[in-house]
Amino acid sequence: MGRYADAERRARALLQADPGHIGGLETLAKVQWHLGKYEELLSTLDRLIGLNPYEPGYHALRGATHQALGQCGQAVVAFSRCAEGSSPEAASAREQIAELQEWERFLVSDLLERDPVFAADYAHDPQAACRKRGFEFVEQSTTSENWVPPVPAVVLWTRPS
What we know:
It contains eight helices and no strands. By secondary structure, the chain is an all-alpha fold.
């Protein structure tokens, strides 16, 4: 109903009495998401994941939060925690991962075209060049063409922000 300040106040009061109250933490997380308090939301999600690390919704929200903060690599890692299976969260997570990896493939391709130092480093050691620029691989591969090919293909790496 849009009464976020009231919901946040009530959730915090409940959590003061019981710091591990799942309902209070979930309410607080929803409020923080709606108010754009993403840094605070990550802390709330840490608490929720600590209480129930197998809840896919927590990891999906963590991925969306990192994505909202522009932290694509961390978003991919969070989404990958709930991408297996046939649940709605898993299907959505797989879609988000594909979109984020497409964006990151574009970023690396752009770096290859515009940054001669990166291009030279990449020609010598693609994985090290990408890591040096803050990219992190989700899956290791033994061939550089699986990291960032010059033609469109699926790339399995992330870039922490």
